């Protein structure tokens, strides 16, 4: 028993010593990136899938749990693959050119995005839309910072909020099919289901009456 413990400790020391070697840093960063992508993807998707599934999806408990597990696995896997691909390509470009330049990041991410997130499915679609909204805000701030557009005299956020809500509700009312399915479900719950009730039970307590009255 003691020999087994000593062997494990020796193995642990060797692993820790390996992790401290600078020459392996790039390769080890790729591996840890894969790990962090998998963990982060699961942390982000699991609660979201849990809430959305039990709020809007029908089916047995087994089917709902299976759907949650599948969505969580897909998000976790894709993010892990992307981080692995991105960091690997970044390290390869830097090694080939002897230094890191901004274009390396763009090219590596483009290739990773094409390979990992290029399949048009609900999970990838949600991730891309999430990123797109952040990109638009980021590019707007960068344009002001670089002087490409003047610094607004007043906070533009109220105008942005008005335009975003005006546009999305117009699309929902007249071109619903253009919106992403989970957004359609959310808006149906908020704006259409609130138009229908039969008595106090489905006016205040439940969204929809389940009996046949």
From TrEMBL:
Which Pfam families does UniProt cross-reference here? Answer: Tim17 (PF02466)
| InterPro entries (alphabetical) | Pmp4 (IPR019531)
- Highest taxon listed in the record's lineage: Eukaryota
- A GO CC annotation given for this chain: peroxisomal membrane
Name assigned to this protein:
PXMP4 protein
Q: What is the lineage of its organism?
A: Eukaryota, Metazoa, Chordata, Craniata, Vertebrata
């Amino acid at each position: 028993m003691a020999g087994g413990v000593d062997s494990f400790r020796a193995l642990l020391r060797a692993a820790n010593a390996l992790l401290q070697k600078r020459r392996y840093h790039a390769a080890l960063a790729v591996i840890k990136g894969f790990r962090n992508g998998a963990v982060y993807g699961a942390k982000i998707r699991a609660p979201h899938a849990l809430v959305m599934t039990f709020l809007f999806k029908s089916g047995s408990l087994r089917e709902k749990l299976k759907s949650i597990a599948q969505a969580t696995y897909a998000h976790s896997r894709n993010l892990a693959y992307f981080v692995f691909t991105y960091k690997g390509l970044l390290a390869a470009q830097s090694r080939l050119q002897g230094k890191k330049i901004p274009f390396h990041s763009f090219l590596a991410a483009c290739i990773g995005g094409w390979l990992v997130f290029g399949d048009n499915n609900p999970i990838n679609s949600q991730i891309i839309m999430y990123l797109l909204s952040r990109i638009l805000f980021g590019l707007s701030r960068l344009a002001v910072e670089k002087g490409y557009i003047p610094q607004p005299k007043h906070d533009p956020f109220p105008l942005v909020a008005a335009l975003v809500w005006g546009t999305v509700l117009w699309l929902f009312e007249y071109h619903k099919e253009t919106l992403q399915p989970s957004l359609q479900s959310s808006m149906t719950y908020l704006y259409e289901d609130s138009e229908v009730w039969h008595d106090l039970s489905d006016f205040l307590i439940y969204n929809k009456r389940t009996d046949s009255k």
